[in-house]
């Protein structure tokens, strides 16, 4: 999910619905996926639906667990309507915040606007962004919390697992994680939301997957806190970070 630090307020606002919602949504559906869009995005919608079903299949294959009940992807046609919910919470979104997710659905700013209004993000990255958000949907549905996607202290894992499963952990992110790992202590729960959270989280989740295995990683999705997550995979924060740093130091 693209970030919010107002955890409790955000969760309550999602429960209450969205302000200033467009009403004339057009819908395409297939294999449990539902894409809701406006007329100006008609030519792109079928492609998004294809990307969504492919991303859901990829996520299910990774974990051996299907997303489950049908989900929707709502594509907002402009910044004003997309940001209305955020602004109603009193939060001022940055330009790179172009998507968010709950256990129920994904919401994104139309990718046709990303180059101009998404800090230069390429429309071609929509497939990975949709995959990233669908991992959040699965995380939300697998976790006992009402909405784990809004828990700031778990953002290192929440964003990290989405980055890793969606295939976004590229060389640049790995290099950034290596640089940060060498600069000093890291407190997982205090990472919150920042560009570095994606790099650190993605790298840590990759390490967990390789070191502990896919089944413990799946179990980690069900943890309601960092402490519970670490206990579930059989380690401590200090030991995890020390082992992760050592692995980065020796990796080519």
Describe this structure in words.
This protein has eleven helices and five strands; from the N terminus they run H-E-E-H-E-H-E-E-H-H-H-H-H-H-H-H. With 252 residues, the chain is an alpha/beta fold. A five-stranded mixed sheet has the order 1-2-3-5-4. The two termini are 31 Å apart.
Describe the protein's topology.
Layout lengths: L6 H10 L9 E5 L2 E5 L4 H22 L7 E6 L2 H10 L10 E3 L3 E5 L4 H4 L8 H17 L12 H11 L5 H11 L13 H18 L1 H7 L5 H8 L3 H14 L2
Parallel strand pairs: 2-3, 3-5
Antiparallel strand pairs: 1-2, 4-5
Helix pairs in contact: 2-5, 5-6, 6-8, 7-8, 8-9, 8-11, 9-10
Tell me the major beta sheet: 5 strands, mixed
Helix content: 40-55%
- Biggest sheet: strand arrangement: 1-2-3-5-4
Mean pLDDT: 89
Secondary structure category? alpha/beta
Unreliable stretches? 1-16
Total of helices: 11
Q: Tell me the total number of β-strands.
A: 5
Order of helices and strands: HEEHEHEEHHHHHHHH
N- to C-terminal separation? 31 Å
Give the percentage of residues in beta strands.
5-15%
Report the C-alpha radius of gyration, rounded.
Answer: 18 Å
Shape category: globular
């Amino acid at each position: 999910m693209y970030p919010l630090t107002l955890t409790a307020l955000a969760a309550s606002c999602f429960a209450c619905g969205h302000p200033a919602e467009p009403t004339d949504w057009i819908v395409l559906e297939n294999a449990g996926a539902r894409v809701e869009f406006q007329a100006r995005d008609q030519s792109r919608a079928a492609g998004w639906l294809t990307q969504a079903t492919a991303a859901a299949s990829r996520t299910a294959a990774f974990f051996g667990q299907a997303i489950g009940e049908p989900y929707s992807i709502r594509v907002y046609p402009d910044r004003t309507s997309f940001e209305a919910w955020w602004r109603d919470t009193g939060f001022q979104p940055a330009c790179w915040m172009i998507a968010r997710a709950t256990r129920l659905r994904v919401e994104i700013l139309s990718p046709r606007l990303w180059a101009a209004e998404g800090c230069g993000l390429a429309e071609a990255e929509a497939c990975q962004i949709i995959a990233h958000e669908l991992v959040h949907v699965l995380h939300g549905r697998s976790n006992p919390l009402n909405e784990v996607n809004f828990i700031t202290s778990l953002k290192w894992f929440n964003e990290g697992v989405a980055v890793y499963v969606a295939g976004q952990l590229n060389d640049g992110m790995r290099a950034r994680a290596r640089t940060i790992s060498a600069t000093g202590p890291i407190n997982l729960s205090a990472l919150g939301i920042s560009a570095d959270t994606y790099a650190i989280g993605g790298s840590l989740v990759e390490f967990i997957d390789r070191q502990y295995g896919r089944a413990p990683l799946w179990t980690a999705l069900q943890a309601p806190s960092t402490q519970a997550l670490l206990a579930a995979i059989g380690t401590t924060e200090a030991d995890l970070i020390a082992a992760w740093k050592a692995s980065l130091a020796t990796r080519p």
